[in-house]
Design goal:
Layout (H helix, E strand, L loop, with lengths): L10 E5 L4 H12 L3 E6 L2 H11 L4 E5 L5 H15 L4 E4 L15 H29 L2 E6 L12 H21 L4 E8 L7 H4 L6 H9 L9 H12 L10 E4 L7
Parallel strand pairs: 1-2, 1-4, 2-3, 4-5, 5-6, 6-7
Helix pairs in contact: 1-8, 3-4, 4-5
The structure holds nicotinamide-adenine-dinucleotide.
Length: 255
């Protein structure tokens, strides 16, 4: 007996959907029946993933998640193309090279805070009226395990993700009355282009081994792990879950 997908008839905007965890989330969402708009600053990557997923299922939207005008256009494009909007995954984000906190350049600090935090403000402005009017909607925000468990050398990144987690909980409390849920996912280090920054600027087997030593389940995360968690939180299976930070970390935060 075949079952309908977990996200059948749902439409999602996925930021940073052209690479890494965002691509993994997009693949899982389409596999579970959703239509997705990939909100990407990198046009080539967004188009590549959209092409792979098929034009009936996915479209690439070139834009910058730190700009409210781009959010408004993304929402309009999504509704025009797919007839609605049910889910927003705030995934696009950046990290600084792991290094002593006082050595991180101011420009890096500002870049991290702007790209990791401001999209929550803009997505709230652009999407809330639509979600409120239809009486339902889901935000899934990609935070980091460094938010609840910050460690040395990625402190400003952890601070930005702490803001993502706090805003997620605040919006969850504020929007619950409107039928809108808001949850965060906290991944441990994952196998994407970001890993080299997490390791201080260069990816290496030795560097990965040090990180893996601190993860009880003995591996780093991958895009499927995060896609599965995002799908669950976006789906009806999580209809009574709001305001949580879900660790997807192989037990890292226990150590
Ligand atoms: N990879 C990890 O180790 C890890 C661990 C914990 C949390 N995270 C978080 O997961 C999310 C995804 O990370 P990733 O590893 O897939 O990163 P990635 O660098 O592989 O991909 C990020 C994507 O976001 C897009 N992007 C960046 N700035 C943008 C902007 N202003 N507007 C639109 N798109 C933009 C990029 O073009 C890219 O396609 C981030 O929020 C990151 O902080 C990653």
């Amino acid at each position: 007996m075949s079952h309908p997908g977990r996200l059948e008839k749902k439409v999602a905007i996925i930021t940073g959907g052209g690479l890494g965890l965002g691509e993994g989330i997009a693949r899982k969402f389409v596999h579970e029946g959703a239509k997705v708009l990939l909100f990407e600053i990198n046009k080539t990557n967004g188009q590549k993933v959209a092409e792979f997923l098929g034009k009936d299922n996915a479209t690439a939207f070139e834009g910058d998640v730190t700009k409210l005008d781009d959010w408004n256009s993304a929402v309009k494009n999504c509704i025009d193309q797919f007839g609605g909007l049910d889910i927003v995954v705030n995934n696009a984000g950046v990290v600084h090279n792991a290094q002593a906190s006082y050595e991180v350049p101011e420009s890096e600090y500002e870049r991290i805070m702007k790209i990791n935090v401001s999209p929550l403000y803009h997505s709230s402005k652009a999407v809330y009226p639509h979600f409120k009017q239809q009486g339902h909607g889901v935000f899934v925000n990609i935070s980091s395990i460094s938010a609840p468990r910050p460690r040395p050398n990625l402190v400003w990144y952890a601070g930005s993700k702490g803001a993502v987690s706090a805003v997620t909980k605040g919006l969850a409390a504020e929007y619950a009355k409107d039928g809108i849920r808001c949850n965060a996912i906290c991944p441990v280090a994952a196998d994407t282009g970001m890993i080299s920054s997490v390791l201080g600027g260069t990816d290496s087997e030795e560097g990965r081994a040090v990180v893996i030593k601190g993860i009880p389940m003995g591996r780093i995360a991958n895009a499927q792990d995060i896609g599965n968690a995002a799908c669950f939180l976006a789906s009806e299976e999580a209809s009574f879950i709001t305001g949580i930070e879900l660790p997807v970390d192989g037990g890292r935060a226990l150590m």
